[in-house]
Amino acid sequence: MTKRNINSNSLKTKKVTRDTHIRAIKLAFKALASPKPPKATLRHAMKKDCLSNHSGSIMVLSSYEEEQLVGYCKNMQSLGFGLTRLGVNTCMMSIVKSDGREHLFKDDGSGKTWWAHFIKDYSDLSFQIHQALLEAHAQRVNSIIIKDHFDKLYKIIQNNSLTPDSPKVQKVLVEKGTHQVHKVAHSNSHNHISVASTTLAASDYIPLLIIYKSVCAISGLLNGTPSGMVIGFTDSKYMCKELFQMYIEHFISSIPPCRPVLLMLNSHSSHINYMSINFCHKNGILLYALPLHTTHILQPSGLSFTKLKTKYSKNCNQLHNITGKLVTKYIFAKMLSPVFIKTYTLTTISNAFRTTGIWPFNPNAISLHCLNSSLTIK
Hints:
The protein is of the alpha/beta class and 378 residues long. It has 14 helices and six strands. It folds into three domains: 8-45, no CATH class; 63-121, no CATH class; 164-365, Nucleotidyltransferase, domain 5 (2-Layer Sandwich).
């Protein structure tokens, strides 16, 4: 092989520059199959506009995809999702893995080099929290965090014409909460069960999503339950990205057709999923993340869940006292359903949205005794 030819080993090991984009590498290998590689053709292909503007390390995102990622970051910032390197990295890998393209990154994503070039090329992005908010988050619930929350919520409602004058406003304010309800002993292990409840400001709810800790699907868990309830399985007891996508599809099929819909949820990492959020955008679903460590006072479903767990535990104790049987995962959904229906009434849901200041919109709804009075801002 002459010096002018491209060595395939060097393409894998040598630090590559802008013109060795992963797609250009594929063209290069294809061209090497011919006796005389058309260097002019390769040079033209490696300078196409579809290539990334980055210099330095190898890239796998086109300029269009990077612009989409930047737009996503800005949108998530306005909706309350904190922008971190991990979050952006996760979204980037979601794009890469969506079509199975080749890349040189590890499973956990890119390294410092990709990140450095990304924030350099898109200097209008800011991945730092305002100092006042940073100090406020350190002390969790306080007036600064609450004010920032209501300011963002107000802008979303106004920008999407979800004003009090609209007769549909109550149909488009929705809140999702995921809580662990039950822990049953089976052999020498513990099986955790979580429930994703979703309430609407119109004083209604959608059928529950029950999450079981299991590596495979189990049949017969919904026997004797109302129609519409769905179940999911995960190797942990918590929501994951795959289950969140399943939840979104269940959510869309369960709500009225009016759009847009504002869905409020916590800041769990499973919710920061590029594919699911893009799916929500296409279906008219606006996601809004509640501030960290505030769901106990800002999440409507959380206010009712304590009462639900108390009633559920009481029913489980009665079953054990009368029959001597324990509640297993096979009858959990059947036991929970009637308790949930009795707890999440029209009045209960309406009061929860009013107490949290979501609907009717009231930034002064949170009592001062719920806030941290020791906050000090320098």
